[in-house]
User: Fold these one by one.
Assistant:
Number 1:
Amino acid sequence: MVQKLEFLKQLAHGLSAQFGSSCEVVIHDLTKKNLDKSIVYIENGHVSNRHAGDGPSGIVLETLRSDPAKIKDRLAYLTRTEDGRILKSSTLYIRDDNGKIAYIFSINYDITA
């Protein structure tokens, strides 16, 4: 699992470099069982005003409360930050070899004009 996390960090860094400072990429580690501090890596955290050690958004928390077998990736949806900016977001649920969600990989792109 450590190898998978390192790959996700590399991918997050590459995506944020490609798309610039308006593109936040967040990795949540659910293997540690502490949702309140699940963010283990974040690029451009100023987009949502979050940092490593913070927890998931309300949308992600709501999803995690549902039947794990029915949780699917959510792509290209719109969200709004507390200060009113509009984000185009995608959330991918990365599963371990047993099918359990181990990581969440989220991309939040500020499209506020």
Note: Strands lie at 23-29, 39-43, 74-80, 86-95, 101-110.
Number 2:
Amino acid sequence: MDKPFLMEPEMTDASPDQTMILDALEQGLALRRAGVSDGALEVLSLIVDHFQDSEDPAHFEAVSRAMMGRAMALIDSEAEDEALEALDILLSRVRGHAGLVFRELRIVAAYEAAQLLGARDEHAQAADGFAFAIDQAQGDEPAAIVHILAAAHVKLAVAQLYQDQVEATFATLDRLAERWPDSADPAIRHWVEEGVKMREALGEALAGK
């Protein structure tokens, strides 16, 4: 499963608690990048367990990112039920919050939850998740996770096709091609090409009926 963008903690003038949270967050994310899922889960869970209910606004962003990292470590550990619950809690937490970091968190959390739901053949809910992730980026795509948005278009189209929503599937694939027609980014180009192949195969299948 893809390991999405999770920005490095940004050190600022901070209280001792805030410094501790940021240091632990950096350690937890580094452990996950190194493939040490159990260690990452332990460190990030400590942050979440101790500070999730903190009323200090200075903690909110770092704890939210720790919650995202913890959810991803749960996915790495194949604890899908716990991961879905963690992603749902995170989405509720950051809903409506302004700022790029929170928008990125909503996009990644919705995308990852949708992938888990799709793997369970819960295609209607998966489609809702992918559509939500795409909608969060309308008009101002966060550059660091734009490849996730391209992937979300293809996976939304798959979820729609599973529900026999053929016209919606074509529309989603067309939007993908229109949105990134000439991207030089290999990751984005891969998903655009996958979308083109899917559209052509679907068109041929329908023509052969």
Note: The longest helix spans residues 186-207.
